[in-house]
Amino acid sequence: MTESLEAYSEHSIREGSKSFARAATLFAPEMRRSVMMLYAWCRYCDDVIDGQVLGYGQQQLSKTDKSARLQLLREETARVCDGHGSDIPAFAALAEVLRRHAIPRRYLFELLDGFALDAAETRFTTFDETLHYCYHVAGVVGVMMACIMGVRDPEVLHRAADLGIAFQLTNIARDIREDLQVGRCYLPEQWLDRMGVLPAEAEDARHAAALHALACELVAHAEPYYASARIGLARLPWRCAWAIGSALLIYRDIGLLLRANPASGNRRMQVSDRRKLWRVCGGLALAASARVKARRRAAAPRAGLWTKAGMH
């Protein structure tokens, strides 16, 4: 059973996140299995709410359908947290992760709270509201991954959340037009208003330049979160720091490529395999550099970054 779950989880990460999949190969075998299994559960829940398969082919579901699907996810998550097994591979994988690692139950449900925002088709007026969403659909995933790596220090958990937030800001920037095509917009409406773009008309081709400018703004806002996450690498086990440092550089590249290609249109920006390999080498250097800097001076504070209250 465990072998089939590992195969399922490996397929999920390989097809659902090619960027993270490359970095995940750097984990020690036992750690890699847990990371992949947690990812598989996160990916499955996201897919269920969006009516997609491994992050692709998103469907326009009704709010009623999404709400019903979310309730089933909550119920099955609660069952697994209470020690029951599951016939659903993603939840069986989650049960295995919870058996191996002490991930607080509340983090699992914080992720589902993020999917609830999607289910309700929530609009975001301010950038702070967008950051709140980013934490709940990605920042908390960083926290749970850190828990798998043995992290318990709240300061390091916050920096793990920062990496997830940076990833999600990059995702939003990359997928603006794709999301608009299925009726979703994660850009703050205040930003759209500033650019003279009505939410209902944002998909119109005449707003392409404005949307690219806003995507670049998201990429810029992701930078301090990436910088904070770099500091946290020093507190991770060595191979974990290498894997996460590589993922950081690969994902950050998506934003850099997007910013450099204003004429990319509807083409989804991707990092080439060759560039990913180069970033894996850079991840090793980044992990080493974080350790050296941590020994020489105190870590820079997380001043000005969005912070989830009560994280412990």
Summarize the structure.
With 312 residues, this protein is mainly α. The protein has helices spanning 2-16, 18-24, 29-50, 63-81, 89-100, 105-119, 127-148, 154-174, 176-181, 189-194, 208-232, 238-260, 273-296.
Mean pLDDT, all residues: 91
Rough outline: globular
Cα Rg: 19 Å
CATH topology tier name of the largest domain = Farnesyl Diphosphate Synthase
Query: Which class best fits the helix and strand makeup?
Result: mainly alpha
Helicity range: 55-70%
Largest sheet features: none
How much of the sequence is in beta strands?
A: under 5%
Distance between termini? 33 Å
CATH structural architecture of the largest domain: Orthogonal Bundle
The low-confidence runs, each spanning 5 or more residues with pLDDT under 50, are none
CATH homologous superfamily identity of the largest domain: Farnesyl Diphosphate Synthase
